[in-house]
């Protein structure tokens, strides 16, 4: 069974000219874990053996203990695998998706979904293209750090610095790369989903409709939503099955041929629709660019925002995924419920993400304050950043990170709890400081790394000093006419941070009272008031917060 499937000589239904196949982005963007023991030299052979071992034990749903034993990994890492799989599964009704964090072990993962998840750990991400204009790089990244010389030998940070958004892989490039990966590995993948029958040659492996549905973890069709639809409904291979009778298994070679035809058609379509562009000046400005994708299958982009403030409400975002890319020296508010979010290549910014029900990935950022309410957070290759977290699962830290700090969630807006309920975030569970660190080197990129570094653990984050913890206030006017019931931070604070916040509030109240009760003549009160206004104005300019007022006045 370890031989890949050959193409069938039997008749293969022609791919529909109007139905295009697409890779599901979520497993490739949020489902890859930098764990060497999940990457196999021969994934087909290794996963076939794993499948046979678990099937022989009558295991159809795999828990942490069985997975840890099979892969020789720790229970914590096995639990991480199951949790990450839950965050990228295609079926919202799967028990692993609907279970609470503490119930993951008792529920376990479907065996075939787990096999596919482990297989794609061999995927290599598409690398960004180099920038030709050094002056443009200096304009985007004006500062240097003592870490630069050290990091250049260890991580792709310097490479990332040499790219603005337009020189990172486009959505079309990434889709073509993922399609090419599936095209190369599809025979192996179908072998793992197939079952042997008595017979000789190419017809000895068959795939059932149920097995075919598991491909929905990796692929979807253009006229179908990203979640919840049956993949077999779009496949003519099973289209004529009697709905009142179990579908007859189909030769795996026939399924392979049909899917390869569709992938080839889709690759051709992507190439024709999005021809490769040479590095050069973009057609429009990089500043304050927001792109809404034409379908819910692709994310919305907020990119190139610089020295500005930006606000997006739930009514502004029709997509369930969002990417904030290459935003600098700005404040960005995303006051909306989302499924997935990515923050990439930002610096000297404050970014507020409302409620993210699946996963957030923050990557290649510097000196950024990120305020997130989410189920899961992954931090990769960042430095000098502070994360204010309301997170239900362990924050994952991977790659080259330096001087990271974590703190409890510190803000609210009126519809926050409504949005959290919508995407399934529990305010009573906050594992903001219970981080899990993996390796410094990401095996999913194709950059070369120095020998001996591959097994090094990522640098952990430190807790923010409670004396430096402050409540972040989102101005009421940013919400427009949107009103909700949230009046305060829904995540309870631990004692040191609660004490610090109460101390700050008490100090402010005492200062206000002293000023009100100061025995000053009216002219002196006016002078004091003017002095306070001057100091406040100076602070607004020095901190850059004056931009927020200007930006909101101009909206």
UniProtKB/TrEMBL annotation:
Chain residue ranges for the region called Disordered: 271-291, 480-506
Domain C-CAP/cofactor C-like stretches: 275-425
GO cellular component: spindle pole
InterPro entries referenced in this protein's UniProt entry, alphabetically: C-CAP_CF_C-like (IPR017901), CAP/MinC_C (IPR016098), CARP_motif (IPR006599), TBCC1 (IPR039589), Tubulin-bd_cofactor_C_dom (IPR012945)
UniProt feature, compositional bias: Polar residues: 497-506
Presence of the UniProt keyword Cytoplasm in the record: yes
A Pfam family assignment: TBCC
Keyword field contains Metal-binding: no
Subcellular location per the Swiss-Prot or TrEMBL entry: Cytoplasm, Cytoskeleton, Microtubule organizing center, Centrosome; Cytoplasm, Cytoskeleton, Spindle pole
Keywords: Cytoplasm, Cytoskeleton
Primary subcellular site in the record, as a coarse category: cytoplasm
Superkingdom of this protein's organism: Eukaryota
Alphabetized PANTHER family for the sequence: TBCC DOMAIN-CONTAINING PROTEIN 1 (PTHR16052:SF0)
Family membership: Belongs to the TBCC family.
Protein name (database record): TBCC domain-containing protein 1
Organism: Gossypium raimondii (Peruvian cotton)
